[in-house]
């Protein structure tokens, strides 16, 4: 319990302490967010709001984890995956915000980075941590060996989750709140499966995100940017892989799955039929353009995330 409190206090304390210092500096550096013109008109007021606030979240998670958790191979790998995605996100934001190249990293460059992270994860996971190539089926509580297919699953989980959380980060407090809920649920999953070190990592992630809401809740004073969203997505994916609960991850991360699927469906529909399924994707914008206030969309999505997390915990043996 002492370690849990230590991780929570350090993570939240660092974010709350760094925020008032970092945000004015981001303002001075003019690290402002550009807003999509086709989006809701109310979002144009957000233009220029500092981004890259994810720096304080990831710094808090890393320092809190190092201070509270034993540096086991699982913790070191989780930190590697998180920091690897942090670097990709930081480079993406830096190119967009500082170099004024709107597209940031090219898709091939980002994918290459994620593939490298996935390969290291597979090597360390199988050779050092002894993770096998089976997948656990919730409720049925059985393991099915999928052989080499598991390596593709790891890549899919890492790429899919990091990008899904990235897509979720489109409204004030949406990504930080849903990640806080999902990481809180995963702290319990880790505890129930005996991964006490990773439980501390999840507590640090949860409290860093909760504290970030002090600056990111509507009206946001700062956005986490790809710097934060890609890293947090990578962190959640890491925990799902290291606890061998990859399928459960899709349940607990149901909001992220919906956000990603809405984009995929929209793109396929528009390219094949010329018609859009949603008013705008990701799906949180669909509800905004339907007349919902931003705060209502965020609250409803938080509640969906909470319900999904409870369902996920119910599925645990």
What do these coordinates show?
There is one protein chain. The protein is mostly helical. It contains twelve helices and two strands. Strands 1-2 form a two-stranded antiparallel ribbon. Helix 1 (2-28) packs parallel to helix 7, helix 2 runs parallel beside helix 8 (225-242) and helix 4 crosses helix 5 (149-168). It is globular, with a radius of gyration of 19 Å. The relative contact order is 0.16. The model has no long low-confidence stretch (mean pLDDT 92).
Would you spell out the secondary-structure blueprint of this structure?
Elements: H1 2-28, H2 54-68, H3 73-97, H4 107-127, E1 134-137, E2 142-145, H5 149-168, H6 174-192, H7 196-216, H8 225-242, H9 246-252, H10 254-273, H11 283-289, H12 294-314
Antiparallel strand pairs: 1-2
